[in-house]
Recover the amino acids of this structure.
C-alpha cells in the first residue's frame, strides 16, 4: 500500500534519517554487547571446566584415600616388624653372654639352696642383678655369695635381706642378694681355620 502525504509543505513532518554519529554509536554499543556476551560465555565455560576439574580431583582423592590408608598401615607394620627384628637381633647378639652367665650361676648354687627369682635391674652406670631364693642354712647362702664373687660375671655381691621362714616341717631362710654385672662384650664365634691336607 502506498501512502501519499497531502498536507502542505509547512505542515508536513520531514523525515529525517539517522546521522552518521548515531549509526556509529549504535554499532559500537552492539559491538560492546557482543564482546560482553562472548566474555560471559567464555567465563561460564571456564567455570564449568574448573567445576569439572574439582569434581575429578575429589573423586581421585576419594579413590586414593583407601590406598593412602593401606600405605600408612603397611608403614606402621614395617616399623613394628623392624622393632621386633631389632629386639631379636639384640637377644641373639647377647645370647652367648647370658648362656654363659646362667651356666656359671648354676655351678655357684650349693646344695640345699634354690633360687626363686633372677632379675636384671638398672643400677645406674653398671647393670645390676637381683637374686632371690631360699636355703636351709645360712652357710649355704654365704657359700653362694662367695662363689658369685669368684665368677667373671658378678661383682660387688651384697646381701639385701634374709628372713627365717617356717615351712611345714623345716625352717628355711628366704633371702635377696644384689650384685653388679661386670662389663661385658658380646661373644662372637671365631671362624674355624680350614686345614689343608697334603695332596
Amino acid at each position: 500500500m502506498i501512502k501519499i502525504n497531502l498536507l502542505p509543505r509547512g505542515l508536513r513532518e520531514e523525515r529525517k534519517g539517522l546521522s552518521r554519529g548515531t549509526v556509529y554509536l549504535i554499532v559500537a554499543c552492539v559491538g560492546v554487547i557482543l564482546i560482553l556476551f562472548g566474555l560471559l560465555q567464555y567465563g561460564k565455560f571456564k567455570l564449568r571446566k574448573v567445576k569439572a576439574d574439582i569434581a575429578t580431583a575429589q573423586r581421585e582423592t576419594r579413590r586414593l584415600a583407601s590406598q593412602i590408608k593401606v600405605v600408612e598401615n603397611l608403614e606402621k607394620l614395617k616399623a613394628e616388624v623392624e622393632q621386633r627384628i631389632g629386639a631379636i637381633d639384640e637377644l641373639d647378639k647377647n645370647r652367648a653372654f647370658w648362656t654363659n652367665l646362667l651356666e656359671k650361676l648354676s655351678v655357684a648354687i650349693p646344695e640345699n639352696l634354690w633360687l626363686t627369682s633372677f632379675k636384671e635391674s638398672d643400677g645406674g652406670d653398671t647393670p645390676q642383678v637381683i637374686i632371690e631364693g631360699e636355703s636351709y642354712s645360712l652357710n649355704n647362702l654365704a657359700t653362694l655369695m662367695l662363689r658369685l664373687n669368684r665368677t667373671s660375671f658378678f661383682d660387688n655381691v651384697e646381701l639385701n635381706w634374709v628372713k627365717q621362714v617356717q615351712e611345714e616341717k623345716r625352717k628355711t631362710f628366704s633371702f635377696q642378694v644384689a650384685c653388679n654385672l661386670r662389663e661385658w662384650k658380646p661373644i662372637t664365634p671365631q671362624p674355624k681355620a680350614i686345614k689343608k691336607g697334603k695332596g
Observations:
- Strands lie at 113-123, 126-135, 154-166, 171-181.
- The chain has two domains: 20-108, 110-181.
- Confidence is low (pLDDT under 50) at residues 185-191.
- The chain has two helices and four strands.
